[in-house]
Design goal:
Helix content is about 40%, strand content about 20%. The protein has about 170 residues and is of the alpha/beta class. It folds into two domains: about 1-65, Double Stranded RNA Binding Domain, CATH 3.30.160; about 85-165, Winged helix-like DNA-binding domain superfamily/Winged helix DNA-binding domain (Arc Repressor Mutant, subunit A), CATH 1.10.10. The strands form two sheets. The chain has a four-stranded mixed sheet. A two-stranded parallel ribbon has the order 5-6. The chain is globular.
């Protein structure tokens, strides 16, 4: 599979974007390339990055998000490719309004699997498209931040950023 990899400078450092045929299939923070490659291999098997096919749309959407347009990823075609349960969780993440949070349990209830909070956490942690699929908006039932693949300092920053613009 041929994938296009681009990077965008943001207030949180570089963001790495991976697209396939104009669909966003990965958005990851720089420094997490090992995770990026592991998830891409799991999803696509053998792949290679190609040059000369870069998009202008995806980098501009990332820039717009960081400039305060919290709907910048609305309507972006996504290529998720997970298990049916993971994809259900990832769709539920997309329903969390900017500037708000919900718990893993809330997500479990919303997908009609009220006892699956831990499984929701696992699916949340494997979300391949940060920001566009807002896994940073999910927190623990006690109000603690929980984990975040990009690091808790980035999660705090993103939540604060969104509250500033809502």
């Amino acid at each position: 599979m041929e994938l296009v990899r681009e990077s965008v400078d943001t207030p949180l450092g570089k963001v790495l974007l991976v697209t396939s045929q104009e669909k966003l299939c990965s958005l990851e923070f720089e420094g997490f390339e090992e995770r990026l490659n592991r998830l891409l291999t799991k999803r696509f098997g053998v792949y290679r990055f190609v040059t000369g096919m870069e998009s202008t749309e995806m980098p501009s959407r990332v820039a717009a998000y960081f400039a305060g347009d919290l709907s910048a990823f609305s309507g972006v075609p996504l290529l998720m490719q997970g298990s049916p349960f993971q994809e259900k969780v990832w769709r539920a993440l997309g329903a969390i309004a900017p500037g708000t949070t919900c718990s893993y349990k809330d997500i479990a209830i919303s997908i009609h699997a009220p006892k699956a909070s831990r499984a929701v956490g696992g699916a949340n942690g494997l979300n391949p498209i940060a920001l566009a699929v807002p896994c940073h908006r999910v927190i623990g039932a006690s109000g603690t931040l929980g984990g975040y693949a990009g690091g808790l300092s980035k999660k705090r920053w993103l939540l604060s950023h969104e509250r500033k613009w809502t």
